[in-house]
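Q: Please design a sequence for this.
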């Protein structure tokens, strides 16, 4: 079975300026994700998409196989990510001359994942027969029990009301926070209808300590701390 990996990262970032190439324990942030993809041994090619020539050059030096220049229209602050992922996938398919059965998209801002998380997602996709698999960690709040949303009139209420009402958190269905770390799709399904959620979407559970997503300087410091502790505990030098 043929697999491709896509990694998409814009040059601009308002939350953490220059975060995708920012140094994280001796290497650019984006390099951690490329190396994790490489370590799985799953992919025929790893394609990196960006509007930034600097990021593309950095990605190739870090081990990416294909650099895909993203159109400016797909690189604005308001541009959705799915079109950029599709563009990267199609470019990778054209350059490798292959149509993979499955492709995996990895987010640069989630460097705490392990290669085994990536292989676990692919195994779940293969075994379940689903169109795609996403990743998430157990949610801190349940929409059935203690997560509320604001109404237009200023009042609040539970985000999701069960019938009959759920009185104990333990009785509520399990809920997860999407961690934006790993997405895997069957290529045919994605090209026909690019989406994150299908009727048969599955979730691969990851622990909280591997689910941090960098969106602020505080997030970056937290990831750096957790990654340093991991490296120290396994005696791996950055």
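A: Design:
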């Amino acid at each position: 079975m043929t697999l491709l990996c896509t990694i998409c990262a814009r040059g601009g970032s308002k939350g953490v300026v220059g975060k995708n190439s920012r140094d994280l324990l001796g290497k650019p942030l984006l390099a951690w994700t490329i190396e994790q993809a490489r370590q799985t041994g799953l992919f025929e090619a790893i394609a990196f998409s960006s509007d930034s020539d600097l990021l593309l050059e950095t990605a190739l030096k870090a081990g990416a196989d294909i650099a895909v220049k993203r159109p400016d229209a797909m690189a604005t602050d308001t541009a959705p990510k799915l079109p950029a992922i599709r563009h990267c996938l199609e470019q990778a398919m054209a350059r490798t001359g292959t149509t993979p059965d499955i492709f995996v998209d990895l987010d640069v801002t989630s460097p705490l994942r392990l290669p085994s998380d990536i292989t676990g997602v692919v195994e779940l996709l293969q075994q379940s027969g689903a169109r795609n698999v996403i990743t998430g960690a157990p949610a801190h709040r349940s929409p059935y029990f203690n997560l509320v949303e604001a109404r237009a009139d200023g009042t609040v209420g539970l985000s999701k009301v069960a019938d009959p009402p759920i009185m104990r958190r333990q009785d509520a269905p399990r809920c997860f926070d999407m961690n934006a770390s790993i997405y895997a799709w069957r290529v045919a399904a994605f090209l026909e209808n690019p989406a994150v959620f299908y009727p048969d979407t599955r979730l691969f559970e990851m622990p909280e300590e591997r689910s941090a997503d960098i969106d602020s300087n505080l997030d970056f410091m937290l990831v750096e701390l957790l990654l340093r502790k991991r490296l120290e505990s396994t005696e791996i030098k950055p």
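Q: Thanks. Anything notable?
A: The mean pLDDT is 93. The first strand starts at residue 3 and ends at 8.
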